[in-house]
């Protein structure tokens, strides 16, 4: 296969640097978001409750989500930065975004319908850890993050990963 016939994504993947930047950006973002939620689990629990996606009783569904989800974000972000379990971490982040984004959109539409607030003016604390945000911007941000997660998921290159640094020849170590 010639270089001209390869897709832009495949060439970027083989170079390794663009995928490294994607992994790093996504990883740092999710570590930061997770750490802000870990620092105030009660506020995050209130944010989760606001979306009315989990049952109020028994309370351990909400409590477990408020405790586990931020640590999962930190774990996945760290895995992406280090280059460990890249596909699993990217898939996990993608699934989280596929849950968060529609939930934010549905809450926004509820506010729009009940309060009559114009869509582009709706702002609330979506629970992401940054406080009150303008929601249309958050929806675009989440869509961009989902795109980055898909790119990291599809990338085959393991250049600039922890496993590559330990074994740059690409030959699997013998047992």
Give a quick rundown of the structure.
With 175 residues, this protein is mainly α. It contains seven helices and two strands; from the N terminus they run H-H-H-H-H-E-E-H-H. Strand 1 and strand 2 form a beta hairpin.
Provide the fold topology.
Layout: H1 8-15, H2 17-39, H3 41-50, H4 60-82, H5 86-115, E1 123-125, E2 132-134, H6 135-154, H7 162-166
Overview of this protein structure:
With 175 residues, the protein is mostly helical. It has one domain. It is 68% helix and 3% strand. It is built from seven helices and two strands; from the N terminus they run H-H-H-H-H-E-E-H-H. The protein has helices at 8-15, 17-39, 41-50, 60-82, 86-115, 135-154, 162-166; strands spanning 123-125, 132-134. A two-stranded antiparallel sheet has the order 1-2. Strand 1 (123-125) and strand 2 (132-134) form a beta hairpin.
**Order of helices and strands, N to C?**
HHHHHEEHH
Determine the strand fraction and express it as a percent band.
Answer: under 5%
**Strand order within the widest beta sheet:** 1-2
Averaged pLDDT, please?
85
What helical percentage do the residues reach? 55-70%
Properties at a glance:
175 residues, mainly alpha, two-stranded antiparallel sheet, 7 helices
